[in-house]
Every structure is written in C-alpha cells, then in structure tokens.
Amino acid sequence: MLTITANDLPRYMICDGYVNMPVIKNIDEENKTKEEGIASHWFIEQVFNKRFTPSELIDRKCPENGYWITPEIAEHAEEYINSLDPTGSVEIDTTFSDGQHFQINARADYICKTGSKLFVKDYKYGWVIKEPEENWTLLFHAMSYLIKNQISDVTEVIFEIYQPRAFHVLGPVRTWKVSIQDLWNVYYTKLINKLTNPENTLVTSDHCYRCLSAALCPANQKANNRALEISEKVFQSELTDQALSFMLAETERAIKILKTTQKAYEEDAQHRMRKGQVVQGYMLKMGQSNVKWNEGVTPEFVETMIGRQVSTKKLPTPTQLINDGVDENFVKSISGRQNTGVKLVKIKAEQAAQNVFKTRKEN
Cα(181)–Cα(187) distance, rounded to whole angstroms? Predict the structure, then answer.
C-alpha cells in the first residue's frame, strides 16, 4: 500500500515514480525555516484555542522542537489568527485511506464550514512561494474532511494560502475558489486515478526541491545538463522585449534546477562521507552558531557576577500593543512597514490583466 503525507501529494501528482527511487537520508538537521514553521503552528494552535495569550508565549520554547517563540513569529501568527473565523478549527486530522491502495497521512492547518461554503486555509512561514491554485495538499484536506464528516450541503470550497514573509505581487494572502462539482468530478477523479493506477514516471519540476531522490534521479540529471547549456546560448547585443522575457524565464528555471541539484549532491556527499567514504576535494566541517548564553543564564545572574546592570527593556511589537488595548490609530501613527527595495517578480498572465484593469478603474 502506498503511504505518503498530504504534503507529498503535489510532488506525487507530477512525479509518482519518486516513491520507488532509492533515497538519500536528509541530513539537513538544522533547517531554521522549518523550525520556525513548527514553532509558528504550535503558537497558532495554542492562541487560537485560547490556551495562552500571545504575550504569554513570546520568549518561550516551543515544546515540539525547542525553538524560541520570537516577537516576529508571534506578530505574523497573530495577524493570521485575527483573520480566522473562530467557529473553525485548527490542526485537524484529515488522514484518509481506501484500505487497499493508499493511505494519506495529513493534518490541515485550518478548516471552517460557513453555510454552504467550506474554507481551507494553509499557513506557510517559509520563503518559497506557494500558490492555492490546484494545490493538491489543500484539495486533499477538503475532500477528506467532507468525506469523513459526511458533509453533502457544501456548494463551494475556498482555498487560501497565508504567507507573511515571502514577497508576492498579490500580497501575503492568495485565494482560489472551486465549485463542489469540480472538486469531485475533476480533482477527486484525477487524484483517485493517480493513487490507484500510478504511472511510475519521473518528471522534473519545482517539486524536485528537497526531494530525497534528486541526486540519483535520471530525469533530474538530464534537466541539470540542460540547465548547464543555458550559459552557452548566444546573446544578441540588444534583446527584444519578448526575447528578454524568454531568457529571464529560462535562466530562472535553470538556476532553480542547478540549486536543487547542488543541494542534492551536497547531501549525497555528506551521507557518503559520514559512512567513511572519500569524496575528493571535500571534507566535513561542523558548523557553529553565533555565541549564545548557556541554558539557565539570566540577566540577574550576569549582573550579580559583574557588578553592573546589563539588561535592557524590550519594546513590544505594534501588534502586541494593539492586542493589549492601546489605541490602534495611535500605534499606526508611530509605526509602519518599510519598503525593502524594488524587486522583479514573475506574474501570471491573468494576474497582469487584473492589475491593468484595477489601475484603469482607479484612474
């Protein structure tokens, strides 16, 4: 029986052959973004279910991974929590199996049924852009939730990605709506067919990122060789707008492929060297964090030992002040978001059309 997680579905729906490939053990044991994400989701669950207030959790350790809840994590998570309907639920088990062909282990970030509409939301704290359109993880959460709870009066499902840190032309929140007919007739049918009749094919895509079989995958090796050819293309002295657009897209894709392959090869090399094998020209070296205080060291202890004050008052975040009852207009008058510079971002054709229409309407 095939057993994967709902987070694996986007990769599986494109490249179902990866489940039969040998894997390289993931040795990236200190992934900061991953640890921040785990801490963020724990914070959201505790605050949404009113076990703690936001301020009570700041500078505490997340019990699931020992990661500190920073003011930044708290501020972003609070904004997300404030956007949720309190009648919904967080961290919902949506694991589902047909008992014969597959079992999908899953946990949805947030689901809420309001009338005939079902809202499925996903909180992403990483930097890699995620989109709600045809997001198989979110689609599965909706299908499983409706089946397990025997819900039949939903007419529309609204999927939402909330990603506070990664810059997106549409902002941190993106939504996608699907009729209940399309959910069952199109997406459910496609999902079940793939899970019960796999093609065992290898296909490169953005989902090769963090794939444990990337270093050994022949499809990825071919794509890597193709990416290397980009540097040998003959550039005109002055590219047309269309040619520039094409080369930007080609180069962006090539860089993604090369970065994915480099990471896969690095992990393969480290895995072999940990077993005593020699990879010529490379060695293992233990990385070190910035200098930190040992566990249990407090400002009061240090002050006692050195004979002078060392602690400083920490200014709460603007969101924390508002949540503590301070006038929102006053807080907004002395705070704000700062621009970090102009950035070239890629947009879909329909998004570009919407932006043009909006600009014309405002004028």
Answer: 9
